[in-house]
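Justification of resources, computational component.

The compute hours requested in this renewal are based largely on the per-chain cost of generating structure records like the one below. Each record pairs the submitted sequence with a full structure-token output. That output is archived, and it is also reused by downstream analysis tasks.
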Amino acid sequence: MEPMSCGRGGWHFADGMVTRVSVQVRILGSIEVTRDGQAIRLAGQGQRAVVGALALEQGRPVSVERLAEAIWQFSPPATSRTKIQAHVCALRRALGQPARGGCGPLLTTGPGYVLCRECVQVDLAEFDRLTAKGRRALAAGEPGPAAELFAGALALWRGPAFADAVSPALRSAAGPLAERRVLTVEAKAEADLALGCPEVVAAELSAWLVEMPLRELLRGQLMLALYRLGCRADALNIYRAGHRIMIAEVGLEPGPQLRSLHQRLLADDPTLLEPMGARAQGLVLRAPEPPLAGDARQLQRAPAATRG
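The structure output for this chain reads:
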């Protein structure tokens, strides 16, 4: 289904007047809403769940049933539809939109509600746009523009997605978003390595590897960056630490590509110093492409924890 809009190019009608609305919704961190640069107070977890569920779909309708699931999980009260309507009316009033709807940021659809894609800017949509452009630039052999696009995408994150939400559905949806974030970190590292900027990679990946020690591509990229900085011993120590962690936590040796990189470091393979990404060096490790945006945005029905 295509994203929906009010068809007025970001304009809506209130009390017979035409008003320009600029609404931003942020979910890559705590859930925040601003109107014309002014913060909108969200009253309680119910409104946060409604905003989060709508933003996750980026301009696609969300049924009342799905909104109820986001708020109350599997035990919505008998009055859930009325309560959701009250949340929507309160949000519309805060956004300067008629409570009963009309053209504006929060539209009514047959099955439920939707954020107008022309009136509302969602940080997740911008993240997807920038990462997609970055991947195209990287595939076209343009690491400079790619690195800038990836940096812009990562700067949108203010912490874990839905950081202040208690909704199990939103907390579950945060997991796939966290994966997309780290995939972008890895893609930026590829671009920076290809640019000949190992110092940037070393500075950025050290903290990420502490959070995700089993991520082999991150580890290999950091090893390669340290080696290019003349820190061979540090690069080898990063491998040894990863080897210990993988044996202890999953009972497996590092993958063949990471072991191969380790052997090339030990042999001082001169080709490792060439300005190219880790994947171009044969380090094609467990880093799948991000899921299709339409699939990744769907609310998860099973509750799951996400990293802090």
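Residues 168-194 form the longest helix (27 residues). Confidence is low (pLDDT under 50) at residues 1-5, 7-19, 285-308.
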